[in-house]
UniProtKB/TrEMBL annotation:
GO CC annotation, single: plasma membrane
Subcellular location per the Swiss-Prot or TrEMBL entry: Cell membrane; Membrane
The protein's name in its UniProt record: Probable membrane transporter protein
Domain of life, source organism: Bacteria
Length: 260
C-alpha cells in the first residue's frame, strides 16, 4: 500500500506537469514494485492514469486551453485501436511484452530529451489560432496509432499525444498538455473496458492508494506546472523513464535467457 502511494505520487506529478508519462511508469511500478502480474498491472495502470488525468484537468485554465474538437476526434479514433492492441497483446508472453515496453520507453526518453517547444504544425494559422478542419484528419490518424499502444501496453499515450499535438498540429504548450489530458482519459477508459474481460482480480487496496494519490498530486502539479521551465521538467522526467527502461529491459532479458 505504501509503495503504491509513493508510485502514485510520481505518476500524478508526471501527468499533472507534462500531460503525459503516467502509464509509462505505472506499468513497471506495478509489476516490479508492487509485484502484480502484467494482466493485472495493465488495467490497474489505466485506472490510475484516468484518475490522474481528471486531476490534471481540474483547473479552469486547463479546461479553457483544451481544443475539444481535436481531443474528441483524436480520442474517438483510438477506440478501435485499443481493442486491436488488447487482442494482439494476448498473443505474446509477458516477458516479450515487457521487453518491447522497455524499448518503447527508451524511444520516449530520447524523444523527450531532443524535443523542442517550437509550434509550427500545419494546423496553426498565422494569427496563432488553430484551424480545426485541417487538424481533424491528422488527429484521427495519430489517434488510431495511440489506441493500439494503449491496448497493447496499457499506456494512455500522452507521451505520443503531446508531441503530435505540438509538432504535427501546432498547438501551443498549454493547449497541447490540456488537450492531451482529455485524449489520455478517453484512451485509458476505452483501454480499461477492452481489458475487463481478461484482467485478473484487481487489488482494490493497491488501486485506491495508487489512483487516489495520483489524482491528488496531479491536481497540485497542474496548478504549479506553468511556473517551472518546461524543458527542464521534461528532461528530468526523461532521465527517470530511461532508468526504468534499463531496469525493465535487463530484467526481461535475463528472464528470457533463463527460460531459454
Amino acid at each position: 500500500m505504501l509503495l503504491a502511494a509513493v508510485f502514485g505520487a510520481v505518476i500524478g506529478l508526471s501527468v499533472g506537469m507534462l500531460g503525459a508519462g503516467g502509464s509509462i511508469l505505472a506499468v513497471p511500478a506495478l509489476v516490479y514494485g508492487v509485484g502484480q502480474p502484467l494482466s493485472t498491472a495493465i488495467p490497474t495502470a489505466l485506472v490510475v492514469v484516468a484518475a490522474s488525468s481528471i486531476g490534471g484537468l481540474s483547473s479552469r485554465a486547463r479546461l479553457r486551453a483544451v481544443q475539444w474538437p481535436v481531443a474528441l476526434v483524436f480520442g474517438a479514433a483510438g477506440l478501435p485501436g485499443t481493442f486491436a492492441g488488447t487482442a494482439l497483446g494476448r498473443e505474446f508472453p509477458q516477458r516479450w511484452l515487457l521487453l518491447a515496453f522497455a524499448a518503447l520507453m527508451v524511444v520516449v526518453a530520447v524523444r523527450m530529451f531532443t524535443g523542442n517547444d517550437e509550434h509550427t504544425g500545419a494546423c496553426r494559422m498565422p494569427d496563432g489560432g488553430i484551424d480545426h478542419r485541417r487538424c481533424l484528419p491528422r488527429s484521427a490518424a495519430a489517434g488510431a496509432g495511440v489506441g493500439v499502444l494503449t491496448g497493447l501496453f496499457g499506456v494512455g499515450g500522452g507521451f505520443v499525444v503531446v508531441p503530435a499535438l505540438s509538432m504535427l498540429l501546432g498547438l501551443a504548450a498549454p493547449q497541447a498538455v490540456a488537450t492531451s489530458l482529455v485524449v489520455v482519459l478517453i484512451n485509458a477508459s476505452s483501454g480499461l473496458f477492452a481489458h475487463l474481460g481478461t484482467a485478473g482480480g484487481l487489488d482494490v487496496g493497491v488501486l485506491i492508494a495508487f489512483a487516489g494519490t495520483a489524482m491528488l498530486v496531479s491536481v497540485a502539479a497542474g496548478r504549479f506546472a506553468a511556473r517551472l521551465p518546461a524543458i527542464a521538467v521534461r528532461r528530468a522526467f526523461a532521465c527517470v523513464v530511461l532508468a526504468v527502461a534499463l531496469g525493465v529491459g535487463i530484467s526481461s532479458a535475463l528472464g528470457l535467457s533463463t527460460v531459454g
